Known about the structure:
The complex is a heterodimer.
Chain A: E1 2-6, E2 9-13, H1 21-29, E3 47-50, E4 53-56, H2 62-65, E5 69-71, H3 84-91, H4 101-114, H5 120-123, H6 135-145
Parallel strand pairs in A: 1-5
Antiparallel strand pairs in A: 1-2, 3-4, 3-5
Chain B: H1 5-16, H2 33-36, E1 40-41, E2 55-57, E3 60-62, E4 68-72, H3 81-93, E5 100-104, H4 107-112, H5 127-154, E6 161-164, E7 167-170, E8 176-178, H6 183-186, E9 235-241, E10 248-253, E11 263-268, E12 272-277, H7 280-289, E13 291-295, H8 304-314, E14 320-325, H9 328-334, E15 338-345, E16 357-363, E17 366-371, H10 376-387, E18 394-398, H11 412-423, E19 430-433, H12 436-441, E20 449-457, E21 463-472, H13 490-493, E22 507-514, H14 528-546, H15 551-556, H16 562-574, E23 585-594, E24 597-607, E25 613-623, H17 630-649, E26 655-656, E27 659-660, E28 678-683, H18 708-720
Parallel strand pairs in B: 1-5, 4-5, 9-19, 17-18, 21-22, 25-28
Antiparallel strand pairs in B: 2-3, 3-4, 6-7, 7-8, 9-12, 10-13, 11-12, 14-22, 15-20, 16-17, 16-19, 20-21, 23-24, 24-25, 26-27
Helix pairs in contact in B: 3-5, 10-11, 14-18
Amino acid sequence: MAKLQVNGKAYSLDIEPDMPLLWALRNEIGLTGTKYGCGIAQCGACTVLVDGKPARSCTLPVSAAEGKPITTIEGLAVNGRPHPVQEAWVAEDVPQCGYCQSGQILSAVALLKQKPHPSDEDINTISNICRCGTYVRIRRAIHRAAGKV
Amino acid sequence: MAKTNSDLSRRQVIVTGTTLAGGMALGFVVPSDAKAAMPELSARYWSDDGGNPGEVNAWVVIHADGTVTLRCPMAEMGQGTGSGLPMLLAEELECDWKQIKVEFASVNRNIREKGVYGDMLTVGSRGIRSAYEYVQQAGASARERLMMAAAAKWGVPRQECDAASAVVRHKSSGRHLPYAELVADAAKVTLSQEPAIKPPEQFKLAGTRQPRLDSAIKSDGSAKFGIDTRESGQLYASIMSCPVPGGKLVSVDDSAVTGRRGIKHVVKLADAVAVVADNYWRANQALKALKITWDTGAAAKTDSVQFAKDYRAALDGPMVTARSDGDAKKVIAQSAHVIEAVYETPLLAHATMEPCNATVQLKPDRLDIWMGSQSALANARMAAELAGLKPEQVYFHQAYLGGGFGRRSNGDELRHAVLVAKAANIDQPLQLLWSREQDMRADRFRPQSAIRMKGALSADGMLEAVHIESACGSIQRSGNPSAAANGIDGTAIDGIGPSVPYNRVPNWYTGLLLKNTHIPVSYWRSVGGSQNGFYMESFIDELAHAAGKDPLEFRRGLTDRADSLSVLAKLEQISNWHAKLPQGQGRGISLVDNHGAIGGHVAEVSVDPQGAIRVTRVFAATDAYHVVNPNLVEAQMEGGVIFGLTAMLYGEITVKDGAPQESNFDSYRMVRLADAPDVKAELALTGGVNEAGKPKWGGVGENSVAPIAAAVANAIFNATGKRIRSLPFKNIKLTQLTSL
């Protein structure tokens, strides 16, 4: 049994220990906000926070995530109020197709926790891929959310 | 067998008579008060297959609480049509934009009601262009009926009434009625004549800067993409097509996966193998463990090196004439100043962020499909045929698309899902998801091509003649060799023949030789413009340089089209074109006519002491004549720059032993934040009407992809004196290029 803590809820799942966290979230728990994009930790669409740090869940076996708090996009709002990064995303109309944005937002949250006022160079360390090319607005939204995380 | 969500949802509509348009999948919650004052797109798939008590017509539902549901016939893949078309509908309806909700129109209803929502084809940057008239008409018609209903109630002439913010008012007496109280009567009104639609000059909402409707649901994980479909009892499939396109399956040894946990079926198709399991990861792991034997045929002897040689050799003809003005051959033969160059570009994959997938549930008398499609109606018809059902027995639940770019229209993933369900007799919901590797290798790629261009300059540096010979993969012929029988495929000459932004070159010849291989090719965002924009605008830059003229002024001299001049003037202004750049920087310009709009870029690059190039800033301008929402058009312009820049810098699918090699984002690299330039996008609209007297609307979803490669290559030339004539740039060693 894999014991996972996702968005403050405890799950006990009868799954293989080497199943990547992504598929436990999407197929077993039913949290589909975390996306599959590449399966090889390249694109970042599957980014979640494990112990507050960004992790590519498509290559992280559930055994490595057990016992640690996991936050997905569905768990970012507090008491129904969107996270400041989500508010910035909406204010800048960042999403186009939207598919990569859960991962982008979680990467931005992690960056802002570490660097509340990131420089452009700091923002460049986020390596998530957006095929629609929303980078201009992602950058703007991160600056907008600066100091609010 | 468990009821699916959609069964329950239909039942719920009947039982509760909910005023939410029937078809919201179970679990959709009426927005809270805080959200009620915001327009929004439904987060869930569209599932409707029936009418609704609040309907004025197929497009408009007025709810008792005053909110209005508008239906969108086009797919939403990021391009913003899901916000734009409803704005046009609301514009005519005269309702409160803050009180609207949008959902995707029902494909099944479109089949049953003979195309009430049009062709539902979201391709070719035509969402607004092709649908504005019937969408506006639907809104105007609904408004007119509501006004007629009110006038009849009051016993006054309709002309004495007006409508605004979802209220009809009798002007002289001040009596008024909200739309919600008029719906039942309005639905019965027959109009003797449809009202005229508004010309853009009369728009109040359309044309204004508005937020996109789906930003919130795409920032909290609730927007449902096809891949997010979760129906009761759902199974998952992973599939692998023959690595060499056109090859066949010979045999499968599945002994390694026999008895593995969760594995339900190993399914053999003519050209692919699928594994069905209770969890996608298990299915995909098992698929990788199969020993598969393919018959790859003669195509397995081909590779990219040979293809490149073949395309270059094909430039020697024979060509089919695609455009002929004046006598370009003769002018060039007699000219004292001829510039000539050969350019080439490779195959490209679409690489949508959401890999292709389709979820189906196939029953004897009904097929449900959940997926995001650019061509839902045609896909539904295709699936019906495969399943042996009538089109009206197919229920297509349109989901959001995690990118489309031309990939998600022909339904390859849906064909797989239906065939697997059929072959294995699966009547549970089945989600078939292409792994990233399958998605990239089984793509239908942007065609490969080579081109030879010649230009003749007069003594005073005027462009007297252009002579173009192109050898290009034909999208129309791919999979259909008898297509383009006259040798002309419009997608291959887009941007080098009929649609160029210049009209003052007196002699112009474009010749075309269509050349296909076994690699399937298809529409790729900006289509012909993706390679031809690079070719034409790099070459125009070569000519400008040879003529000793400023590249922007040279282009200005090639046209008196108001749209082209408008974009050039805007670029000149926003890029501060005439200002000098510091040492080690360069600036390049390009201009295209793509998908019915003029687009241009100015790119700035910097060269570091080691010779590494970085694209620092891009200025983009577009004349699409009229636009519905400048905010979303600018987003398309920004994104188009990045999409085209990825192709320019890194994009290349190579073929070895007949098989596409790149299979994921490690080998098929993308521009990321660190190499994304700042983009400043501005509109340069000239408005106006076309020959038919109707407002001009340009396409904006693809336009901004076409100019960027040339703008960057021209900037590199400006900075280094080196001319880039083949892509991608990653393969070029600048130090090995001769300075010009």
